[in-house]
């Protein structure tokens, strides 16, 4: 798959992902007082979203970005946009 996560988007994912996961673990170990079903939901959501943020930030590939048509990755010039790649190519 092509990379579609870069720049500030990637930095935000790599910073917020661990923060969400640590906050979820804080709820689990009762550092933060949230009880009952709400606490369980926050733990599950925090760990899931935090893990997804870290993985998508590290791999620079996000399926949701692709489905929504978002691309924040600014890598090297592709063959489609680089006119010099046309030189020497047989038609």
Describe this structure in words.
The model has no long low-confidence stretch (mean pLDDT 87). The longest helix is centred in the middle third of the chain and has 24 residues, at 36-59. The protein has 3 helices and no strands. The protein has one domain (7-74). The protein is elongated and about 50 Å long. The protein is an all-alpha fold and 91 residues long.
Give the key terms.
single chain, about 90 residues, mainly alpha
How many helices? The count is 3
Could you tell me the number of beta strands? 0
Q: What is the subunit arrangement here?
A: single chain
| Overall pLDDT score | 87
Intertermini distance: 28 Å
SSE topology sketch:
Elements: H1 7-28, H2 36-59, H3 63-68
Outline:
The protein is mainly alpha-helical. The chain is 57% helix and 0% strand. The protein has helices at residues 7-28, 36-59, 63-68.
């Amino acid at each position: 798959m092509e990379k579609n996560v870069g720049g500030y988007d990637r930095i935000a994912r790599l910073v917020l992902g661990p923060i969400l996961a640590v906050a979820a673990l804080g709820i689990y170990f009762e550092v933060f007082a949230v009880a009952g079903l709400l606490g369980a939901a926050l733990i599950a959501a925090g760990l899931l979203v935090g893990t997804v943020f870290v993985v998508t930030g590290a791999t620079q590939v996000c399926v949701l970005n692709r489905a929504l048509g978002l691309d924040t990755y600014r890598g090297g010039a592709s063959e489609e946009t680089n006119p010099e790649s046309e030189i020497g190519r047989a038609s």
